[in-house]
From TrEMBL:
Alphabetical GO biological process terms: proteolysis
Family: Belongs to the peptidase U32 family.
InterPro entries: Peptidase_U32 (IPR001539), RNA/ubiquinone_mod_enzymes (IPR051454)
UniProt cross-references to Pfam families, sorted A to Z: Peptidase_U32
Species in which this protein is naturally found: Campylobacter blaseri
Family matches, as PROSITE patterns: PEPTIDASE_U32
The protein's name in its UniProt record: Collagenase-like protease
Length: 418
């Protein structure tokens, strides 16, 4: 059984480092105006982007740059400059969506691999073959493609890498080809500025053109989120997918999502891949971990079922649901933490750290770290800064860094079941 790459989102430099430390084999990120995630692209400067590439390579991992927006004529010259910048950064691959941009990339940086974005909607072996002949070393498959078709593409194009999404937001439109945001708010989805209009509440009406009578249509009392897709979650299918040997990379969506989201999803899918390789696959373990996240409800999408077989892909009730846990703090350096929600003295908080981390039990004047029911917990006797300032409790918005009882692995989170 082939071990696939685990590809995680890097919305900024901190999230990039979290993804790498939590087990990603590769990350994808963007800077500038040519990605489909303008908000995350703005979180990188050119300097921090270069620093991210260097950090990734020093850790022995790969860095893919997303330039998968759909450019207008007036942007082509700037697109050329941007490709030159990414070439000089020595990224490992470009993720792009159009034949024209692919030709530019091959002309300016022929030494860098080309990955074809899911925006290109590859669903069959003929399209895959054509793009491979044009220079794509990898296809990021359309989310609507099923596993049998992925296997067929691999059989007929054995030298072509195949990447699929395994987790994250699902688009109401066909592989993200959506105009709703452009119509309602002038923000163009295919140029990186989707306003997520499909997550809004809507009311439907029927109008009689003869007398002007207007009737509101209700599916049920809560059925107003008519375009709101649930989140993709293929964790329970990872072993089955790996057994096909057709997929080279598992991709997690979410460059605009939280630091905890990056850590939690990367950790869960790292466990799933490694357990499958070692014959210890346990769906319950990954399910419990992923359900700690805020979500829109989960679906296994269309890879293992055809779209018309599905009746659970939409969440008509709410655009966001609470997960099972609340994140209370993060420690970037392992010595102090920053509060995300609240920390109270003499209250246990679960420590979530990268896999295979070493956490030692300790009991001192600041607090204690101990293990219970297979989980590492921390309780604080004192909430104090390095300079000795003390607090009775800490709430989100407080910018002080609070000492931990002992050093934890970097990018550890403190969380609590809701």
């Amino acid at each position: 059984m082939k071990k696939p790459e685990l590809l995680a989102p890097a919305g900024n430099l901190t999230k990039l480092k979290i993804a790498i430390n939590y087990g990603a084999d590769a990350v994808y990120a963007s800077v500038g105006a040519f990605s489909l995630r303008q908000r995350s692209a703005k979180e990188f400067s050119k300097d921090s982007f270069e620093a991210g590439v260097d950090y990734t390579h020093k850790k022995g991992k790969k860095f893919y740059a997303t330039i998968n927006g759909f450019p207008f004529n007036g942007q082509i010259e700037n697109f050329k400059k941007h490709i030159k910048f990414l070439r000089d950064c020595k990224v490992d691959a470009f993720i792009l969506a159009t034949p024209g941009v692919m030709s530019l990339a091959k002309e300016i940086a022929p030494e860098i691999d080309v990955h074809l974005s899911t925006q290109a909607n590859v669903m069959n072996y003929l399209d895959a073959k054509i793009y491979h002949q044009m220079g794509a070393s990898r296809i990021v498959a359309a989310r609507e493609m099923n596993l049998k078709d992925a296997i067929k593409i691999k059989e007929l194009n054995p030298n072509l890498e195949l990447e699929i999404f395994v987790h994250g937001s699902m688009c109401f439109a066909y592989s993200g080809r959506c105009l709703v945001s452009a119509i309602q708010s002038g923000r163009f989805s295919n140029r990186g500025s989707c306003a997520n209009d499909c997550r809004f509440k809507y009311e439907l009406y029927a109008k009689n053109s003869e007398n002007g009578a207007l009737f509101r249509l209700d599916e049920d009392e809560e059925g107003t989120h008519i375009m709101n897709a649930k989140d993709l979650n293929l964790s329970k299918h990872i072993e089955k997918i790996m057994q096909t040997n057709a997929i080279d990379s598992f991709k997690i969506e979410g460059r605009t999502k939280s630091e905890y989201y990056v850590a939690c999803t990367t950790r869960a899918y790292r466990m799933a891949i490694d357990d499958a390789m070692n014959g210890k696959f346990d769906t319950k373990k990954y399910d419990i971990e992923i359900k700690t996240l805020k979500n829109r409800g989960f679906t296994d999408g269309y890879l293992v079922h055809k779209p018309y077989e599905r009746d659970d892909t939409q969440n008509l009730t709410s655009s966001l649901e609470e997960g099972t846990h609340q994140v209370h703090a993060i420690s970037e350096d392992g010595e102090v933490f920053k509060t995300k929600f609240k920390i109270i003295k003499d209250e246990p908080y679960e420590i979530m750290s990268p896999l295979k981390s070493e956490i030692l039990n300790i009991d001192n004047e600041i607090g204690k770290i101990y293990k219970k029911d297979g989980k590492h917990l921390v309780e604080f006797k004192k909430l104090t800064t390095k300079t000795g300032k003390e607090f009775e409790e800490i709430h989100s918005g407080n910018i002080h860094e609070i000492l931990l009882p002992a050093r934890l692995p970097i990018y550890s989170f403190l969380r609590k079941e809701i």
